[in-house]
Amino acid sequence: QYQSFPYNKNGFKVGMKLEGVDPEHQSIYCVLTVAEVCGYRIRLHFDGYPDCYDFWVNADSSDIHPVGWCEKTGHKLHPPKGYKEEEFSWPSYLKACKAQAAPKSLFENQNTTVIPSGFRVGMKLEAVDKKNPTFICVATVTDMVDNRFLVHFDNWDESYDYWCEAASPHIHPVGWCKEHKRTLITPPDYPHAKHFSWEKYLEETSSLPAPARAFKVKPSHGFQKNMKLEVVDKRNPVFIRVATIVDTDDYRIKVHFDGWDSIYDYWTDVDSPDIHPAGWCTKTGHPLQPP
């Protein structure tokens, strides 16, 4: 639903400061500044770091929060480069930068009806490694915000972490691999990898499995081959291009950029914030790159 057309205008202005998730390390919250506004999208800059790390999000992204959100919710905020954590304070930082905090009202278009969930921080599950989608690994819920939770792969570094919802097709209850005769990737350096037993592992880590009823089934998507849409160019995300669906599976579509070589085709989740209906750019005031 949130992929269709936005209801409100993008109220962010260049120079406003906020807090948000680092897309490359999704367990980390950073100090960010709006560097560019284009239609319903904003380019965010990590304070104190080079522009090459800037990234684009939609104005209603769940990954961004108002100034003070981390403190209020008990999350660790990574200060700008050159600041020590204990010496960083928003009021003095904003004053020093002569900057404005992005108004809280701009974050209210985030879907806030929180659905009670059976997931809790610390619970274990089996999850697809999105960077290597053929792998299903031992994982843990390490953070929860609204209707999303953070999946962390046991004994791996946090660069593989990702946020998802209860209906995500990437997550499964403990025992799913065994039941579906798939290989479960055990945590690196786990001594009993050959004879991995969840029962034993849960006992050793004093953890609970996420209850099977907590996992929801996503209704099947309506995307079909040859449908047209507008898609962010992954290699150069400032651009949105005219694209065509060339293949689909249960929860992904393969997009082709019209007029471009098929080496640029890519698979993406159907709930990606980077795919839009035809007409989205015109409606939100964003340039569309023609074929």
UniProtKB/TrEMBL annotation:
GO terms for molecular function: chromatin binding; histone binding; zinc ion binding. Its main location: nucleus. MBT repeats lie at residues 1-80, 88-187, 196-291. GO terms for cellular component: nucleus. PROSITE patterns: MBT. One of its GO terms (biological process) is negative regulation of DNA-templated transcription. Keywords: Chromatin regulator, Metal-binding, Nucleus, Repeat, Transcription, Transcription regulation, Zinc, Zinc-finger. CDD domains: MBT_L3MBTL3_rpt1, MBT_L3MBTL3_rpt2. This is Lethal(3)malignant brain tumor-like 3. It is found in: Nucleus. Gene3D superfamilies: 2.30.30.140. Signal peptide: none annotated. SMART domains: MBT. It comes from Tauraco erythrolophus (Red-crested turaco). The keyword Signal does not apply.
